[in-house]
UniProtKB/TrEMBL annotation:
Pathway: Protein modification; protein ubiquitination. Residues 169-208 form the E3 ubiquitin-protein ligase parkin-like IBR domain. InterPro entries: Parkin-like_IBR (IPR054694). Residues 239-271 are annotated as: Disordered. Residues 241-262 have a biased composition (Acidic residues). One of its GO terms (molecular function) is ubiquitin protein ligase activity. It comes from Penicillium frequentans. It catalyses: [E2 ubiquitin-conjugating enzyme]-S-ubiquitinyl-L-cysteine + [acceptor protein]-L-lysine = [E2 ubiquitin-conjugating enzyme]-L-cysteine + [acceptor protein]-N(6)-ubiquitinyl-L-lysine. Its EC number is 2.3.2.31. This is RBR-type E3 ubiquitin transferase.
Amino acid sequence: MSSDHKNPPSPNELSRDNDDFKECLICYDSVQSSDLLPACGDCPATMCASCGRKCNAIHKYGNDAANAVRFLADTSYDYDIMYAWCCKCHEPRPLVERSCSRDDFKLFPEWVCMDCDILRKPELEIAEIRWAADAITQAQLSGDYVKQLKAEEHQGRVFESIEDGTMGIKPCPGCGILTQRPFECGHLHCTVGGCGIDWCYFCGQAYDKASIYQHMEEAHGDVFGGIIMDRDLVALAGTDTDSDPDFDSDSQDEEEDELGALDDDKVLKAR
């Protein structure tokens, strides 16, 4: 037998030679088949090693809960949308349009999709009220009367939306059409004919595409709204109310009493 004899190529070598690439069913990157890993033990769904290390469901609940991905191979997804694992329903749900994506996105290990978010509605209402109260205080500190009026108007809309049950539905600042955010990103583009403006969901103000992302990061923490996405609902930093002679604690108490009255009213209606 000739000493030059070589062993037949391994399946991995054949795969690389044939440029056999497939998509990771989580991040949609094109990966060589030999580098894909099973998403769980009982289905053909596969993912790249990077997604395996980051998968929220695996980190939070272990490999057993990751069996929820068994249907991925037979499910079609929109490439223009980025998906994330919801830790309530254990399914990949729309997070943000790829056009709004950023390299420095935070990882949300306990992210909850918008369909499941109704369970966190009281938390979101409190976060909105805190944001509005903070904006009013900041305007008072800076002596910006116009900004204070806008913040007070926003606060009024927040209380109204809580009272009538339309929290999360906001009017387009261009045409007034009531709009519900389809994804977590706060950048909305109005599709109504004759309008077509871009605007910020969190404060309801119009911005052009070139500046809206910078606005959201500076004013709201990030494109997800910062405080609203925070599971701990940490208030926006920077306001020291104890050292502010113009801060009206009675006004704050009235706001808290009003929120409590709204909560009591909702309980009565639920009964």
